[in-house]
Amino acid sequence: MEIAGAGTYITGMSEASALEPADRVSLIGMDRAELARAVAEIGESEKAAKLRAKQLWHWIYHHGVDDFARMSSLNGPLRQALADAYTLARPEIARLQKSTDGTRKWLLRFIDGQEAESVFIPEEDRGALCMSAQVGCTLSCRFCHTGTQRMVRNLDAREIISQFLVARDSYGEWPSPRDGRMISNIVMMGMGEPLFNYDNVAKAIRIAMDREGLSISRRRITLSTAGVAPLIERCGAELGVGLAISLHAVTDDLRDELMPINRKYPLAALLDACRRYPGATNARRITFEYVMLKGINDSPADAKALVQLIAGIPAKINLIPFNAWPGAPYECSPTEDIARFAAIVNKAGYSSPVRAPRGRDILAACGQLRSHSMRAPRSAGAAKSPPPPAPRAAIS
Questions:
Q1: Cis-peptide, bond into residue 314, ω within 30° of zero
Q2: What is the tens place of the pLDDT at every residue in 300-346?
Q3: pTM for the whole thing?
Q4: What is the dihedral of CA 104, 122, 368, 352, to 10 degrees?
Q5: Do 15 and 37 lie in a common domain?
Q6: Which residues are catalytically annotated?
Q7: Can you give the residue range of the structural domain that contains 37?
Q8: Measured distance CA(199)–CA(204) in Å, rounded
Q9: What b/e readout covers 95-113, taking b as 16+ CB neighbours within 10 angstroms?
């Protein structure tokens, strides 16, 4: 089909020839260069494709459209060619739950049937979206519900950033508002270890930060890691987002038990990486997350050891009352013990707020996320292969 000044579009001659949505390539999660190549593949010239990529970016991430027909700045034949070859579909919302405290949790089902959860935690005039990086988790942290689910696969950049798009759809925050946005922050604290899926997570975060699209400031994005020490400095240098460390113990012996990753990256290596984190200052402190487990890590001696452990690091401590789930092996520390622990840390000069549990009634609180996805048998064929796991060389 030839249109003057618009190039030759490779498109189906009838509605019946168009691909089924599940077989179309999604444009969500592509960077600008990838969008330009996608447009070139359906007939646009290289020069025109760069302009079209910029237009697509604006429609997808500023306006949040999920239908090419709504892209009024593109001509009709191009819109049809895009619709025949590509898709902007969101993941299926398998379940949406709303807590009595306003928290929302989405169970999202991806094209291969695997599922992951994301959670929005609202405040009075803003809120944070907790996003997942993996289906399942390799870490097996004993206090975390996700850790009871075997690792299935990494999420790709499309599946990660789609969590944000689904949340924005839910709150009707399109076009991207400059001020007064409800979904104001992103925390990579959902299912999985973000640094074990660094390339996809980094790509999704860069999309979120782009000022011509979703426009979330890097100061409003926090990445939480269980302690993949070799990638912490790279994360700071390349992304410059806030860093949160799931610490939870002040000795290697206890952390080995609670968080098996500590056997590979013990406390000394982890804290050395934190001290070298680019951009960490008193104005932008590293957050250390510390779950309060009754009789395990909540004594005054533990609090004093924690202060000594992080000495010299611009930091604050988030104390997290343990959020139980059916069959959980621990109990939450009593309120008075948490208050005593916080007072010791505060006296040493570190802010130590106690995180108010949110969404407990829908298992959406910190440490409670989990899906029922399982790794498919190796012999089972699939129309769509899931993204591969992160290469081990990247984290050794």
A1: no
A2: 999 999 999 999 999 999 999 998 878 889 999 999 999 999 999 99
A3: 0.88
A4: 180
A5: yes
A6: 117, 366
A7: 2-87
A8: 9
A9: eebebebebbbbbbbbbbe
